[in-house]
Amino acid sequence: MEPIHKMKLRQKYTLPFSLCFIIIMVLPLLSVRDSIASLPEKKTCFYGNKICFYAKDTQDSLDGYLQIDCPEETTVAFGATFTNLEGPFKPLNKAFKGTHLVSLFHLKKPNRELCKPNCRWNYKWGLTYHIGTATRQHDEDAVYALPYEVDQEYRLIQGEHGRHSHYGPLAYAYDWGMPEGTKIYAARSGTVIETFDNSNVNGSGPSNHIFIEHSDGTVGQYLHLKHKGCLVNVGQKINQGDLIGLSGNTGKSTTPHLHFHVSTPLSNSPYAFKTFPLKFKTCEGVEELKQGRWYKRCSSPSLSLQS
Ligand SMILES: [Zn+2]
User: Fold this and answer.
1) Residue 295 Cα, ligand 1 centroid: separation in angstroms?
2) Is CATH 2.70.70.10 the classification given to domain 143-305?
3) Where does CATH 2.70.70.10 sit in the chain?
4) Cα–Cα nearest to 271, from 137, 138, 126
5) Each residue of 110-146: pLDDT tens digit?
6) How far is the CA of 24 from the centre of ligand 1 (A)?
7) Residues less than 5 Å from ion ligand 1, measured at CB
8) Would the pTM count as exceeding 0.85?
9) 293 alpha carbon to ligand 1 midpoint, in Å?
10) From the CA of 170, how far away is ligand 1's center (Å)?
11) How far apart are CA 295 and CA 277, in angstroms?
12) Reduced to 3 states, what is the DSSP secondary structure of residue 35?
């Protein structure tokens, strides 16, 4: 149950993209610091403060910037809609590595003498990001293990296209309701590329998570883990079925559960990534999971051969 905005992601938005003039300005950090420091802006950060959105609100204009400081190549998408603000804007979808300041828009506010009686203005925005660039394909033959202990059974409280939060780029995601502290096992083999388990907060802020990169380049994301619930380290090789963490209820989560999805970066889209429909090995065989049903993990030696 991961609202799109966080991702990671954050909110569902449909954008009437116009083919406007693109204004993207990339400057080195040194020149950024002076200008950012002087901005009386609202700031919202993601990805452990590696990506921050700033809105500078002056008397006559509204300016939007992204400050990016990503050591790994990261695809970032930003979209917005504006009411009563004038100027060019084009949604952003671009891969960044290193430190950048990106100018997203410079829009004129309504002229206070001429705009009466309707001088109100506003805007809505959304940001998504994903490690890597959009060159990866999901292995359609991959069979995933249920990410919990053998012989345990949990209910899929939200599945593909779930109306609570599995829409847009998160259309193919899976939530199993389970008590906090439930042992989480790798659904597929790979290498740990990111862990975060410092959050002790529910409802806002980051979700504790483990990201595992698979052999096809896709990334399996295990979200909402318990505080200090990551039992693996970045760079560690993981086999399918290995114990990796403990479930929780951190970040934008409305009930204790594990959220899992597999994603790749995506270009030419309002979103920075896409997710994939997955097949899981259950006690019934290999199947696509249905929301509301209970699924038991059966032991299967052959699963350990999956990569
Ligand atoms: Zn979810």
Assistant:
1) 16
2) yes
3) 143-305
4) 126
5) 888 888 888 889 999 999 999 888 778 899 999 999 9
6) 33
7) 1-2, 173, 175, 259
8) no
9) 15
10) 8
11) 17
12) helix
